[in-house]
Amino acid sequence: MFDPSIEEASNTQINRPAADSSNGERAKDPRLPQAEAYCRKIARGHYENFIVASVLLPRRMRQPFYNVYAFCRFADDLADESESPQAATRSLIWWQGELDRCFLGQADHPIFIALGQTVRELGLPKRPFDDLLDAFRQDQVKTRYADFPELIDYCRRSADPVGRLVLRMAGCDSPENVTLSDRICTGLQLANHWQDIARDYAAGRIYLPEDAMREAGVTESMLGEALACEPLKRLIAEQSAIARRMLESGLPLAERVPKWLAADIRLFVRGGEAILDAIAAADHDTLVRRPKVSPWRQMLFTAQAIFGRL
């Protein structure tokens, strides 16, 4: 795991080459091979979360996905592994500045050198990257959500941009496809939230909507108990059902995208449903232990996705 501090990350630079004006066509940055190797190292270092990129993606798409993943992974570590919310905010503001420089063609950090190439080749917009960083910064100052629409707005920036970038990379980001992708990404985000209620509470964050908690008779102190009480389990069951419906309603996207991406989409939906199944198998008590999908089941999903693609 790399150190996400600004001091460490700021030193991870590759000297910028002198501008080449010998022809009108933009020359490929000579720093690119080293930068792409850096992104591959980050992605493969988190292989358990990125197995699809190495197994299902066409070879030509792997490096672009590594580059986008490295940006997201690095930002996530800045948000979650800094010594304090204040330090995380400073780091994320610095990372935002590096992103801005990337889109101006002034990248020095290896992630942005590689990402800049992907942005130019595939025409990726800046907005999804901005939205992701905005959500990471929000996590440092906002720890409660008044209602479900407020939570969905957070998911719109913390989860949906990833799906939108993938659709653009695959050249199939029609408005209809974006809507379906948003449902899948938000459903996955919600499943992760209900899986991690105890972990988030220990970090000072609660994603369960406050109005739903009041209606269910659930107090914040109940989230710190060793076992979930019946009102909390019913609330988790209700919220899990919403997440499952969102995943299912987005699944038709798999019939509307290139075959290689369809396999990934089905895998992500199955993975989200497996998390919800694990929560249900634990009687919706995610306090006593964090429900997880077994490695064998993950391998089964991957194998099914591969054979489905073939």
- Provide the residue-averaged pLDDT: 88
Number of helices: 15
- Termini separation comes to 35 Å
> Which CATH class of the largest domain is shown?
Mainly Alpha
Strand content: under 5%
Shape: globular
> Main β-sheet: number of strands, strand sense, barrel status?
none
| Helix/strand structural class | mainly alpha
Tally of strands: 0
Q: How many structural domains in the coordinates?
A: 2
Q: Order of SSEs, N→C?
A: HHHHHHHHHHHHHHH
**CATH evolutionary superfamily of the largest domain:** Farnesyl Diphosphate Synthase
User: Radius of gyration from the CA trace?
Assistant: 20 Å
Percent in helix: 55-70%
Any low-confidence stretches, pLDDT <50, length ≥5? 1-7, 18-25
Query: What do we call the CATH topology of the largest domain?
Result: Farnesyl Diphosphate Synthase
Describe this structure in words.
It is a single chain. The protein is globular and about 65 Å long. The model is unreliable at 1-7 and 18-25 (pLDDT under 50). The chain has helices at 6-10, 32-45, 51-55, 59-81, 85-103, 110-122, 127-141, 148-158, 160-170, 175-195, 197-202, 210-216, 230-250, 259-281, 295-309. The protein is an all-alpha fold. It folds into two domains: 1-13 and 30-141, Farnesyl Diphosphate Synthase; 143-310, Orthogonal Bundle (Farnesyl Diphosphate Synthase), CATH 1.10.600.10. Helices cover 67% and strands 0% of the residues. Helix 7 crosses helix 8.
